[in-house]
């Protein structure tokens, strides 16, 4: 083949890979939206028992057809405190088993290098099914399932195109000298296996998906190019390469999220070492089971090699999961050593804990991370509120100025958190997302807007206190007591709001309205007393102006607080309406 011929083959292969990767993304996102929030609930309800985590990881990965998405979710949930480290490790182990389903889906579409894939005769049947979903179904769920089936259809086309793109190389590769060169790459024995493990890891890192890597290995094995040793080594290598995404995502998470990502790496490395120790008996057992020989060029071997590789892929992941599931406590100790508990980071520094732009590849499943970040936002606001009493009791200018600086810094943090979370949710919402997901985003945007307004109100209260101090305006004991009681009522409302943010499906709206009512009634009482005091000349205008300004700001703060709970309640009612409509359309 000439250089030009090789260039054409490379371009064909790149195009086929693009189609394959697009299909995987389309199918995965369709399945994610079809499953909806149930996937999040499955992962966040994991118990401390390894079996439940492994089964959940296997099931979720098999459903969404992406071990990377499952691992990324798990890292995020662990960082958010929704999963224990042991539970997260079990889920990651299960994800390794779930990812083997892809190979079994692709296996029937292989044709021993002939280019006559089953994808083509399957297309009319699948396309007809899709048209029924879109023409007759009014349910969003069915449309999402339709998207997933379209993705599967294109995936099979991508597999067929991959075969066609490499077929021109088959004669060139099967020349005696080339076959010998391939079979001798990396040396012989264990050195060759180690060499191709590294090659497999690098290729998987480049492709950023183990599914595409698996497809290429299956196609090359069906062409009689790869020996069993090389194919097995590439499979083990891709398991190492696929851990990179989790490591990148974990960089911006908390300690537990980082440890989960390290556990993914430790688990896969340990799995490779285990299979290396048992390499020969595993290889011989699979070759005996499938009836293949050491000569991959034989026609019968070309037909059976993909099956042998798929069996090894499944056996490798199942074996390592079963074997290492008993050592989760030891893995925890290793990752705790790798990622030691950091000293408490400064609270008054801007830092997003749970959001990571890379998660946008699984838009429908990012909402839990956004919810966790909003909960963190609420904690910051509540923390900021606790500084206010110190402004009244400060015994020196230095102490007062120090508290003001902290409040000002927190106010800046709330502004930046609102901006960053809004940008994240806007990017998620601009993607292909379900109606329920879109409604949750609208709710979250309203929540963070009100949380930022709470921060502004707290800062305004602090500024009023500062002006009062600069103007030498002093309140008597009764006025201070009134404001202190108002502050306590607002604190109770904030606590209810914060509790409601943790579970959108079970909010205590009655408690939120009761807290709001208490604030309003007390404000009305203070206003009446204030007007009477002005008439009687109990205090001068400067004191009255500062006093009325403060209790009005507290009441205004309470309005923003109730808005948060109302936003959650409206979202819940919207979700119920969507579910009811789907039932009626069923």
Helix content: over 70%
Mean pLDDT across all amino acids:
78
- Judged by helices, strands and strand pairing, the structural class is mainly alpha
Total beta strands: 0
What is the domain total for the residues? 2
* Poorly predicted runs: 111-119, 357-361, 577-586
Q: Mind summarizing the main beta sheet?
A: none
What is the terminal separation in angstroms? Answer: 58 Å
So what's the overall shape?
elongated
Radius of gyration: 30 Å
Continuous helix count: 24
Textual characterization of the structure:
- This protein starts with a helix and ends with a helix.
- It is mainly alpha-helical and 586 residues long.
- The protein has 24 helices and no strands.
- The chain folds into two domains: 10-338, no CATH class; 366-585, Phosphate transport system protein phou homolog 2, domain 2 (Methane Monooxygenase Hydroxylase, Chain G, domain 1, Up-down Bundle), CATH 1.20.58.
- The longest helix is centred in the C-terminal third of the chain and has 45 residues, at 541-585.
- Helix 3 crosses helix 5 (85-98), helix 7 (119-136) packs antiparallel against helix 8 (140-173) and helix 8 packs across helix 11 (210-222).
- The model is unreliable at 111-119, 357-361 and 577-586 (pLDDT under 50).
